[in-house]
């Protein structure tokens, strides 16, 4: 009967043989990926195999990423373009779109600041608009582009909007001067810092912030801090034009068309906000806030003039108010 020691030796030898076979199969697969034919005595020594293996892995990764990019080119509800910036890569890098080497010592290509995709500058124009932001790149909640935030957290709307509105509707709809009254600025900044730090785990309950005006202030600050307003810069001129129309029927249809110009995440956020503000107006007896008053508060927050001179921007203020007032009054038919 074989001893325990001999059994262990046989077991060890067997595992070494299996490992060697596994590595041989792996080499064959990677060689095929490289388009090489290496077999028998012609197999490369370990000193040159390791660089070849690293190269092959990078090629396979690039090809898989490219295939994913093409498969994901189907229409998405929340479409987002990549936020490419010129980047200097350390060590060898391959384009994740075309799978070719990125030559040069510096500024070899571009990298998406939101999802980390690395591509040639010339390839960046061909990459589908399907950026899926990674939370390790998206470090803030406030001042983060709206579509970037919702895609990074896989939500329909920004968490700040959802959580603040839910808290306001649970205990603040009858509060006098809701949204007109300002909360203590230091406390509003505390809420902002908490969202940036803790995200969805942020506590904005009455135990943490008894004054509901702090929560309304935090929501308004979030909307003001957006790099692209809820009613985007591209759509802004159209909304102002529609506000100037005098025929109510034409205005209704024109607003419906203008809303289609908004990115999907912006449109959904605006819809949710208008439904909420309509509920605020239903409590006007207590909170003294009607659609006109809310339009004054939210007009300059939701619509910001894109690079207009001071006089034009000043003249637009009343139309900004009218846009928000109309959206609140007609939210049930517009969205």
UniProtKB/TrEMBL annotation:
Q: Name one GO biological process term.
A: signal transduction
| Keywords associated with the record | GTPase activation, Membrane, Metal-binding, Zinc, Zinc-finger
In alphabetical order, the GO MF annotations are:
GTPase activator activity; zinc ion binding
Task: Cite the PROSITE patterns for this sequence.
Answer: RHOGAP (PS50238), ZF_DAG_PE_1 (PS00479), ZF_DAG_PE_2 (PS50081)
Note the SMART domains from the entry: C1 (SM00109), RhoGAP (SM00324)
- The chain positions of domain Rho-GAP read 144-335
Pfam families noted in UniProt:
C1_1, RhoGAP
The UniProt entry, under Gene3D superfamilies, shows: 3.30.60.20, Rho GTPase activation protein
Q: Domain of life of the organism in this record? A: Eukaryota
Cellular location of this protein?
Answer: Membrane
> Is this entry keyworded Membrane?
yes
Annotated Gene Ontology cellular components are: membrane
Annotated ranges, domain Phorbol-ester/DAG-type: 81-131
Stored CDD domains: RhoGAP_chimaerin
Its placement in the membrane is given as: Peripheral membrane protein
> Which InterPro entries does the record associate with it?
C1-like_sf (IPR046349), DAG/PE-bd (IPR020454), PKC_DAG/PE (IPR002219), Rho-type_GAP (IPR051854), Rho_GTPase_activation_prot (IPR008936), RhoGAP_chimaerin (IPR037860), RhoGAP_dom (IPR000198)
* The protein's name in its UniProt record: Beta-chimaerin
Species the sequence originates in: Oncorhynchus tshawytscha (Chinook salmon)
Q: What is the lineage of its organism?
A: Eukaryota, Metazoa, Chordata, Craniata, Vertebrata
């Amino acid at each position: 009967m074989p001893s325990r020691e001999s059994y262990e030796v046989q077991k060890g030898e067997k595992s070494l043989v299996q490992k060697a076979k596994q590595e041989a199969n792996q080499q064959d697969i990677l060689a095929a990926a490289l388009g090489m034919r290496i077999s028998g005595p012609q197999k490369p020594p370990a000193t040159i195999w390791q660089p070849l293996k690293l190269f092959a892995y990078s090629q396979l990764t690039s090809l898989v990423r490219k295939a994913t990019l093409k498969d994901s080119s189907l229409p998405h509800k929340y479409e987002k373009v990549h936020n490419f910036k010129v980047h200097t890569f350390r060590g060898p890098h391959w384009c994740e779109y075309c799978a070719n080497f990125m030559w040069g010592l510096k500024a070899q290509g571009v990298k998406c600041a939101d999802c980390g995709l690395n591509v040639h500058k010339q390839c960046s124009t061909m990459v589908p608009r399907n950026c899926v932001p990674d939370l390790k790149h998206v470090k803030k909640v406030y001042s983060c582009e709206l579509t970037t935030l919702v895609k990074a957290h896989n939500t329909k709307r920004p968490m700040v909007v959802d959580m603040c509105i839910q808290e306001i509707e649970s205990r603040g709809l009858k509060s006098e001067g809701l949204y007109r009254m300002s909360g203590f600025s230091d406390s509003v900044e505390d809420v902002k810092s908490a969202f940036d730090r803790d995200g969805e785990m942020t506590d904005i309950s009455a135990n943490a912030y008894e004054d509901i005006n702090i929560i309304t202030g935090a929501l308004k600050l979030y909307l003001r801090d957006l790099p692209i307003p809820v009613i985007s810069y591209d759509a802004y001129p159209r909304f102002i034009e529609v506000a100037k129309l005098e025929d109510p029927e034409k205005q209704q249809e024109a607003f419906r068309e203008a809303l289609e110009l908004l990115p999907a995440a912006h449109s959904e956020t605006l819809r949710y906000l208008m439904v909420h503000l309509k509920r605020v107006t239903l409590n006007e007896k207590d909170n003294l806030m009607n659609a006109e008053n809310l339009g004054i508060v939210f007009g300059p927050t939701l619509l910001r003039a894109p690079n207009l001179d001071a006089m034009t921007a000043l003249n637009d203020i009343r139309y900004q108010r009218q846009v928000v007032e109309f959206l609140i009054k007609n939210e049930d038919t517009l969205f």
